[in-house]
Amino acid sequence: MSSRGRGELRRIEVLPWLRAFGVGALLVSPVLISGCAVPKLSSPFGAGSDDTSSALNADDKLPEMGASTTKDPASGESLNCPQVVAWPNDRLRTIYAPGHDGDALSVVNRGELTKLSRECQFFGGRVVVKYGFAGRVLLGPKGQPGAVTMPVSIRAAGADKRTLATDKMKITTTVPPGNSVGYFSMVREIAFPVQVGTRLEDYKIFVSLK
Q1: What domain count does the chain have?
Q2: What is residue 147's three-state secondary structure?
Q3: Which of 53, 60, 147, 189 could form a disulfide with 183 if both were Cys (CB 3.0 to 4.6 A apart)?
Q4: What's the pLDDT tens digit per position in 154-169?
């Protein structure tokens, strides 16, 4: 199956949250999210407790997927799926009030990816990867409850970093009245050719909020 969209990547600047309204600064998560890993974050609008997979809202969880390995129908050998990753600067997206970029007290909302997953099938030199992602939107000092729409870009690449396929979409979540966080999740597919002599684990699928 072909990819559903193409988009050019753009780095998203990650800015620290200022101590506002008596809450602590946000703790940056590990270097990247990979596979089904869930980073630990301290919410700037809560008591500072860490979020883990068991603490995520139901809407922040992905549907169960199969194992991260598949079998080559020709040989029957097990093959690892391509990795799905989100780099730190790509997994976060901060929106500021107009004319106040970089001002932590003017943050409207911040989107973040918290969970990634995948499964794959290999057919005659091509791999089809079903990938999923979940995340949340946190309101900032200038934010208001309601619908929040964010762009998401996907890029599949080999060990040589050459782009093999792309996907692009918009995802909308709603922050309920009286709350400061909304959750989202999505499952899609992307397909690309696998070069002879390479391994599926040599390929990566990059997810970015941009």
Answers
A1: 1
A2: strand
A3: 60
A4: 999 998 999 999 999 9
